[in-house]
Amino acid sequence: MSAADGAVPSCRVRVPATTANIGPGFDCLGLALDLWNEVRFSLEGDGVVVTVEGPDPAGLPHDERNLVARAFLRFCEEAGVAAPAGLRIHCDIRVPMSSGLGSSSTAIVAGLLGANALMSRPIGRDRILELAADMEGHPDNVAAALLGGLTIVVQRGDRLLTKKILVPEVHVALAVPDLPFSTRTARAGLPAEVPMADAVFNLQRTPLVVEALRTGDYDLLNQVMDDRLHQAARLKLIPGGRTAWVAAQHAGAAAVAISGSGPSLIAFVSLATDASRVARAMAEAFAAEGVTAIPLGLAASASGATVLG
How far is the C-alpha of 244 from the C-alpha of 179, rounded, in Å? Predict the structure, then answer.
């Protein structure tokens, strides 16, 4: 990753998609998924140039305004090093954007880790996580993207406390609807205050979601994925969402949730259930409501973001 024999200093960073909240675990639970964005960084040329390939790269900035580049430059500020005179960034995008699968987190984590690998004053992963959470605005997706597995993250003063939970083989079905959607809009629609009973409802269920995933107990997961803090408000913003939710249940899903702030729906399935079939059932339900959706069958990833030479 450093210059040798005239080679251009470069590295690659792979970052997984994530799903956050997982029902009642609002802003504290995240799970890495086996779907990856890969970003290549090289210190060459003049200025910042970003190139993008993938299913829907239209509209992304190709200069220092790009989120990956912004994260790289933010690292330089934090580490107290001068930004490079020339930076080339190539993004191979596989995680659908604006989907509730942590695409912005992959960009932020990739930019920070790429800079950490190439600049002369690396910082620890705890600080990288804090920088990523500050840029993202909430920590659940970036923690899962950085650490992998099922991640619990909480704010403790000005620091983040994390715990990675290794889970057995977990399979999920996803329907990614083609809808204009913004995390900011989805969060703005949530109430500033909630009844004590609703807060307690979620608190009672969140540790059992963790335990169900840790032990592979899908019967338990089916009973504890309910939420009273965010999903009802967000589901109203997803045309066809309720129909697709019910379709997943009828197709054999153990539990269904909105992935992150949406608009994707995620269904957890036992090993005896075909995740792809559940995903297709959700996509077909969306289609019946006039919404195109991409079905995905994925596994959870125990690995988080990785820096490669």
Answer: 14
Whether this prediction's pTM lies above 0.85 is answered by yes
Pairing of strands 86-92, 47-53: parallel
Distance CA 288, CA 283 (A): 9
Beta carbons within 8 Å of 204's beta carbon, 6+ residues apart: none
Judge if 249 and 218 occupy the same domain.
yes
Which structural domain range is residue 275 located in?
A: 171-299
| CA-based torsion, 62, 64, 70, 76: positive or negative | positive
248-275 pLDDT tens trace: 999 999 999 999 999 999 999 998 899 9
Q: What is the CB-side half-sphere exposure of residue 125 using CA atoms within 13 A? A: 14
